Amino acid sequence: MDGPGESNAKQLAAKGMQRLPFDKLELLQKRGFLDEAFCAELITMIDAKRRPSTLADFDGDMYFRTSETCDLPLDDPRTQRLDALLNELSGIDPAHGEPLQGQRYAVGQEFKAHCDYFNPGGQDWDKYCSVAGQRTWTFMIYLNEPEAGGATRFKVVKKSFQPETGKLVCWNNRRPDQTVNPNTIHHGMKVRKGTKYVITKWYREKPWG
Ligand SMILES: O=C(O)CCC(=O)C(=O)O
Ligand SMILES: [Fe+2]
């Protein structure tokens, strides 16, 4: 039985998502999850209100994550519409979702290889996980196509996703036994030309505080 904070690869496939053929992690994609017009609106929202992206368990590399982040306004109908679409697709109780974020990468910006889960026992574990617990699933949507660069590379399974307007990628950050899955390590690679915009939605084991 999946916990209330977990999605399920079989159910996602039944809803039309394509599962990638890897045993090492549950990784799925869906082209055209959002239409171009909605992506363009979300880009406008991200451009309007952004801050430097942050990191948990900072290890001294100032250049590890160089992008900007937008906390999408909770009271905006477009945020609510997107959240509803993701909650419906994931099948996860909305209470377990972190607030939606947009990420913006200008030329040269990246998010080096990392996992989305928090390191059990890491310096920031209590700060980020004492209330809502571990991250379970990640859902990420590309809002546009930069002219060059900006792929998301899953190193262990050697799979790169090219940004494609409206495409959704999602994965389980844990294994079936609920331990964290290091095979999910991925790199938001440097944008070489243009600007890259994505939306990220993370779900938690327990309700978000
Ligand atoms: O931008 C990307 O391609 C990856 C983003 C990412 O991994 C994250 O926000 O956790
Ligand atoms: Fe990530």
For this entry, give a set of tags:
single chain; 209 residues; alpha+beta; Jelly Rolls; eight-stranded antiparallel sheet; four-stranded antiparallel sheet; 4 helices; 14 strands; 18% helix; globular; binds 2-oxoglutaric acid; binds fe (ii) ion
Task: Provide an overview of this structure.
It is a single chain. With 209 residues, the chain is α+β, with helices and mostly antiparallel strands. It has one domain (9-204): Sandwich (Jelly Rolls), CATH 2.60.120.620. Helices cover 18% and strands 27% of the residues. It is built from four helices and 14 strands. The protein has helices at 9-14, 36-48, 77-90, 125-129; strands spanning 18-19, 27-30, 51-52, 68-71, 101-105, 111-114, 135-142, 148-149, 152-154, 159-161, 168-172, 186-188, 191-193, 196-204. The longest helix has 14 residues, at 77-90. The two termini are 24 Å apart. The structure holds 2-oxoglutaric acid and fe (ii) ion (FE2). The site of fe (ii) ion has 3 residues, from loops.
List the helices and strands and how they pair.
Blueprint: H1 9-14, E1 18-19, E2 27-30, H2 36-48, E3 51-52, E4 68-71, H3 77-90, E5 101-105, E6 111-114, H4 125-129, E7 135-142, E8 148-149, E9 152-154, E10 159-161, E11 168-172, E12 186-188, E13 191-193, E14 196-204
Antiparallel strand pairs: 1-2, 2-11, 3-4, 4-5, 5-14, 6-12, 7-11, 7-14, 8-13, 9-10, 9-12
2-oxoglutaric acid is lined by residues 103, 111, 116, 152, 186, 188, 198, 200.
